[in-house]
Design a protein that fits this description.
With 835 residues, the protein is an alpha+beta fold. The protein contains 14 helices and 44 strands. Strands 2-3-4-5-6-11-18-17-14 form a nine-stranded antiparallel beta sheet, with no helix packed on it. A nine-stranded antiparallel beta sheet has the order 7-8-9-10-19-16-15-12-13, with no helix packed on it. Strands 23, 24, 27, 28 and 29 form a five-stranded antiparallel beta sheet that branches. A hairpin with a 5-residue loop joins strand 33 and strand 34 (412-413). Helix 9 crosses helix 10. The protein is globular and about 75 Å long.
């Protein structure tokens, strides 16, 4: 359950699996696979991706590695590799990728991998064969005795592609269950047993031509497992054991995905699901299979009160070229300004409706603030009418993490604890405020700082006058949909500030964060209040024993307390900003926040501001130099231009020049408090950044930076939209509003793979199965923004709509959502400027 790599402070910047559109019946074609220069095997309707995506060195099994099958536009198989468990969990052992080369046979790809410390090295040969492919595993040496009976070849299949469908193990029939039902080993291990085993051949969903796959084994029998019996994020696993003594052809499979003859993916018409204000540009994008015979025009239809449709515009589409594996066309309906309910008609299909209205964006950010951000609050109980999101959580925070460890979630602690507490000792004062970072339950300090900063900026720049939530910090009680007369944004700024100040008061510096000590505890799904017993750990008690306010359960979260310059400066920036927001409602806390910010900033000016200085044992290294600019500017704004901060900012201009891509939006906020020379120095940087942004925009049809890393990039997109609006306001002669509106369009539906709004419940059709605390229920948290579309290398854009457990596409994060709130308000302002 990892998190985004960057927070917004340092950033510059459709609904179901697509059904088949087939020109033929549901029968397999005789098309053979062909190796591509990218190292995949391809034919119309089928892609075999072979180790272009590797297992993670930190988070291990992310379900995007090894041999993968994209069949009829759906990545339905993954992780084809030698594994040491029949149903591996996320942190189970994974092989290390060594190399991928062309094989000696035609249309053959050979991948070498290793479990180095277990003396297991092997090659997997994937070869086109008839209307499918052959997998052969060759070991460098026979299995070590320690791995005999453990190592086998696995291929995982997407559960939601097979729920309610059948399978055949040889001739024996079975059913893929919607909910895991065992069988389980009776030895107390918790290990799943096979759903079916002993056959030489297994066919998945013989009744469905779109998902039917047959695997035949030459060496040993096959087994079929439901890995959800081990963990909710498990897939259905086909497995063959590697026999003791086997070496060449230790496993040989013949894989036959059924490919519907002449299958062509249906077009996806993507647009802003929240709709459009009358005067702004309105351009939908159409994602096209290159084999699809695309019409050259599209129509905008208006929906009438009697259910009818009136065509109000028919226009030619404009090519946007090829990006990844698809062609794109644009449909411009900007000339239509009359308010109403509309839809787009293309290629015989009509989209879901959307609005054109002056108030189209009036309610696109509030749910993110009053529901999602509230649901992520730590150390309080959260209720919404009849629903209890959480009892008061983590009241036993926190124990000192030990030295010299790397946590399974990426946190690191060096030899120096930077703390007055001994390893394992309770740290008083930390069980207040803060936000649980993501679909897990940890407090990541830099992300909490980002939430505070984003909400302060949104209030100051655009206004967040909204009150739907009651917050009683003393009673640790939060109630959604119960106004209490105080702005929700102010209450959330205060809640975040409580935790940031607590860290400063205890340690004199910011810490990396607070996280669960044990993997089983960390993998908790459900309400946060039950993750710990909220009683302080006492080692003298037995595990189940309780005495007073203590217990023998070592479930208290660990505090990772490394003193990092970047984190100190990010927190200083957030506290300086919060002091402005809290000045009226809580002047005492505002004063404390400013005092802490000033002290932390001052300490860091004494020789830390060079890149790479100091240890960085955090899970996501951050630039102390860029953070120093941010903190200096927040203190400059808070002090209304104090010469100390203005002078320091001028000294930091080389840092701004070097890092403008990350901190340009931050840098321009200082212009009203600096002299004319400061603005003059930023002007060419803005011009250069615009040129780069225009170049990046030209590389894809969506007009925004699209991440090609291991985490999808909605945070990058909204941060880009905010930064460009800030530059627009500072340099209107250089930067227009189109960048910001493109960013809003992207996250609210105009993106690859489908046309769903990436913000749950915002827009007419949105992401309603997300990776949040309630993901085991295939549900969502209103207002949370998911990461969005991942580019599965080499060229497959993906956003699973019905499977919540891919964190890199579906995991809500608190700082990503606060970044969305800020970007949404910026986009509303940009739309208001349209003539």
């Amino acid at each position: 359950m990892p998190r985004s790599a960057f927070i917004a402070l340092l950033a510059s910047v459709g609904a179901c699996v697509v059904p088949a559109f087939s020109g033929g019946a549901g029968t397999a074609s005789a098309q053979s696979l062909t190796a591509t220069p990218a190292g995949t095997l391809e034919t119309q309707g089928l892609s075999v991706i072979i180790d272009q995506n590797q297992f993670s060195p930190i988070f291990f099994d992310e379900k995007n590695a090894g041999i993968q099958i994209v069949l009829h536009g759906n990545r339905l198989a993954t992780d084809g590799a030698v594994r040491l468990d029949p149903t591996p969990e996320q942190w189970a052992r994974v092989p290390a990728f060594v190399s991928r080369t062309k094989g000696s046979e035609p249309n053959q790809i050979v991948v070498r991998s290793t479990y180095k410390d277990m003396n297991l090295a092997y090659a997997v040969k994937v070869t086109a064969e008839g209307d499918g492919f052959r997998i052969a595993v060759d070991l460098d040496q026979p299995l070590p005795a320690s791995l005999a009976g453990k190592a086998g070849f696995n291929l995982d299949f997407l559960p939601t592609a097979y729920f309610g469908k059948t399978y055949l193990m040889d001739a024996a029939p079975g059913l893929f269950p919607r909910h895991p039902t065992g069988p389980m080993a009776k030895d107390g291990s918790g290990d799943p047993l096979p759903m079916a085993s002993g056959g030489k051949s297994v066919t998945l969903s013989p009744e469905d031509p779109l998902t039917r796959v047959t695997i035949t084994s030459d060496q040993g029998p096959l087994s079929l497992y439901d890995a959800r019996n081990r963990a909710q994020n498990g897939w259905f696993v086909v497995r063959s054991m590697i026999a003791a003594g086997a070496k060449e052809n230790a496993v040989v499979w013949h894989v036959r995905p059924n490919v519907v003859k002449n299958w062509v993916r249906e077009p996806i018409v993507s647009f802003n699901q929240a709709g459009y204000t009358p005067n702004r540009p309105k351009i939908a994008l159409i994602e096209l299979d290159p084999k699809f015979k695309a019409p050259t025009d599209a129509a905008l239809v208006r929906l009438t009160a009697d259910g009818g449709q009136q065509t109000v515009l028919r226009a030619r589409t404009q090519s946007r070229g090829r990006w990844t594996r698809y062609d794109y066309a644009a449909f411009d309906f900007s000339t239509v300004r009359e308010p109403g309910i509309y839809a787009i008609s293309y290629a015989g299909k009509t989209t879901n409706p959307f609005r054109i209205a002056t108030d189209a964006y009036d309610r696109i950010w509030q749910t993110s603030l009053d529901t999602f951000i509230a649901e992520q609050m730590d150390h309080v109980g959260i209720r919404e009418q009849y629903r209890v999101w959480s009892a008061p959580s983590h009241l036993d925070d926190a124990r000192q993490a030990p030295p010299n460890i790397t946590h399974f979630d990426g946190y690191k602690m060096g030899a120096n604890l930077d703390s007055p507490f001994k390893a394992g000792e309770h740290i008083p004062g930390l069980a207040v405020g803060g936000f649980q970072d993501a679909g897990d339950y940890d407090i990541q300090t830099p992300e909490n700082a980002a939430v505070v900063r984003d909400l302060v900026w949104a209030r100051e720049l655009f206004g967040l006058d909204w009150d739907e939530t009651s917050v009683d910090e003393a009673a640790r009680a939060v109630e959604i949909r119960k106004p209490d007369g105080v702005e929700d944004a102010v209450q959330q700024i205060r809640h975040g500030t409580l935790q940031l100040l607590a860290q400063y008061k205890v340690f004199g510096h910011a810490i990396v964060g607070i996280v669960d000590p044990a993997l089983r505890q960390y993998a908790h799904l459900g309400e946060a209040g039950s993750q710990t017993d909220s009683l302080l750990y006492d080692a003298a008690l037995k595990p189940a024993e309780r005495k007073g306010g203590t217990s023998g359960a070592p479930d208290d979260r660990w505090a990772f307390t490394t003193d990092l310059p970047a984190n100190n400066l990010l927190v200083a920036a957030a506290l300086a900003a919060s002091s402005r927001a809290l000045a009226t409602s809580d002047p005492a806390m505002a004063k404390d926040a400013l005092t802490a910010a000033t002290a932390m900033w001052g300490k860091q000016q004494r020789g830390i501001a060079k890149s790479g200085d100091g240890r960085d044992d955090s899970s996501s290294p951050r630039s102390a130099e860029a953070a120093n600019v941010a903190a200096t500017i927040e203190l400059l704004i808070t002090s209304k231009g104090d010469k100390v901060y203005a002078d320091r900012l001028r000294q930091l201009l080389p840092v701004i020049h070097q890092n403008f891509g990350w901190i340009g939006g931050v840098a321009v906020r200082a212009i009203p408090f600096m002299d004319a020379d400061y603005r003059a120095q930023l002007a060419p940087l803005v011009q250069q950044f615009k040129a780069k942004a225009d170049g990046d925009r030209a590389r894809n049809p969506f007009g925004v930076p699209i991440s090609d890393g291991s985490w999808a990039g909605s945070n990058q997109v909204v941060s880009f939209g905010t930064s460009m609006y800030l530059m627009h306001k500072a340099f209107p002669e250089l930067i227009g509003t189109g960048y910001t509106l493109d960013a809003l369009d992207y996250v609210l539906g105009r993106h690859p793979a489908n046309n769903l709004s990436l913000v749950s419940t915002v827009g007419t059709d949105s992401k309603l199965i997300g990776y949040g605390h309630n993901r085991a229920d295939y549900s969502f948290i209103p207002g949370g923004m998911v990461p969005g579309v991942l580019i599965v290398k080499p060229d497959f854009p993906e956003l699973k709509t019905d499977w919540p457990f891919l964190w890199f596409e579906n995991e809500y994060t608190v700082s990503t959502t606060s970044a969305y709130i800020l970007a949404a308000r910026a986009a509303m302002a940009a739309a208001a400027e349209a003539k």
